[in-house]
From TrEMBL:
Organism: Arenibacter aquaticus
Source superkingdom: Bacteria
Name of the protein in its database record: Uncharacterized protein
Length: 321
């Protein structure tokens, strides 16, 4: 474990991309021709449509740079999200296959043999460029048959759109096909950020805070990332909106949000929980937006990190009639 500490200290969220992207299937390479249903276009209202029907992302292959609004339709039977990972210039999934899979496979084999120190030491053979990947936002978690609308600002480049929720057998969705290359072109988007009705801030020291109260009807939430750090489960913080039922167990929800727990971020989601989107990991100083139509009831903002209550990253609220 000590062999990895210098990497963690100097690169922030890099272990997240290591753990998650290393599970991408070889069939997800950028040289693979897109399916016919993937040849979608940005709508006239400048909204980028993304649809999941099973373990897939059906979306445009190229989008403009700048502000982009994404409408994510989860038509599947499992909870999903999408996260946009910006790769260093000139690097693609093919480089991940050639340079990342070998040390990852060897390291994981050693760990499975009980040789933990040797396994983690093997991860230090990962290429330096791999730790330059930038997590650039995306949707929060979205329950089956639900939609989300998220707006983030993107720089031109090569991105991977991924989801790493786990199947009941523990396999990451990214290893089952939910990892897709997206090109952000040099053509500028005409989209502007929406006007927020509620402003949320999130930081490692202050947790999640917002200016209330929150009313029913269509609401636009801005999420300002005052900082971004690597938490105990090697991921950064984000904001997810959850509708709570009377039967919801908040302790079970908190435990489930930690993917590093064997029972965390795995199908099925906890009873009495409906995920309605949010804003996924963004860099320090950036702001993302999500839009949702709220009905009266009980809700929570929660981050995908361990110990959310202690960190102030689980905040409940009610929407009145």
């Amino acid at each position: 474990m000590k062999a990895l500490q210098p990497i963690f200290k100097s690169h922030g969220n890099e272990f997240k991309i290591f753990i998650i992207t290393a599970f991408i299937l070889h069939s997800c390479g950028p040289d693979k021709k897109p399916k016919s249903e993937e040849k979608l276009v940005v709508k006239k209202d400048n909204i980028v449509q993304i649809t999941t029907t099973a373990m897939d992302f059906i979306s445009p292959d190229t989008i403009p740079y700048g502000w982009n609004t994404f409408n994510y339709q989860n038509k599947s039977s499992e909870t999903h999200f999408f996260l946009l990972d910006k790769y260093p210039e000139g690097k693609t999934i093919q480089d991940t296959k050639n340079e990342v899979f070998p040390p990852f496979d060897k390291g994981m084999n050693l760990i499975n043999e009980g040789k933990t120190e040797a396994g983690y030491a093997e991860f230090n053979n990962l290429p330096a460029w791999f730790f330059e990947v930038v997590f650039s936002g995306g949707s929060g978690l979205v329950s089956p048959k639900k939609n989300s609308t998220t707006t983030v600002k993107l720089e031109p480049g090569y991105y991977i759109m991924e989801c790493y929720v786990k199947m009941p057998n523990g396999k990451f969705h990214s290893s089952m096909g939910m990892a897709k290359p997206i090109i952000v072109s040099n053509q500028k988007s005409s989209t502007s950020p929406p006007n927020a009705t509620t402003k949320i801030t999130i930081s490692s020291s202050e947790g999640i805070n917002y200016n209330g109260p929150i009313n029913k009807g269509q609401q636009v939430f801005s999420v300002e990332f005052k900082d971004q750090i690597t938490h105990e489960n090697f991921v950064g913080h984000d904001v997810n909106l959850v509708k709570l039922a009377d039967t919801t167990n908040l302790e079970a929800l908190e435990q489930w949000m930690n993917w590093a727990d064997p029972k965390g971020l795995i199908t099925p989601a906890p009873e009495g929980v409906t995920f309605l989107g949010g804003v996924n990991d963004c860099p320090t100083g950036s702001t993302g937006y999500f839009t949702v139509n709220l009905e009266p009831g009980n809700y929570a903002f929660i981050s995908e990190v361990p110990n959310t209550v202690q960190k102030g990253m689980l905040k409940t609220f009610s929407v009145q009639e």
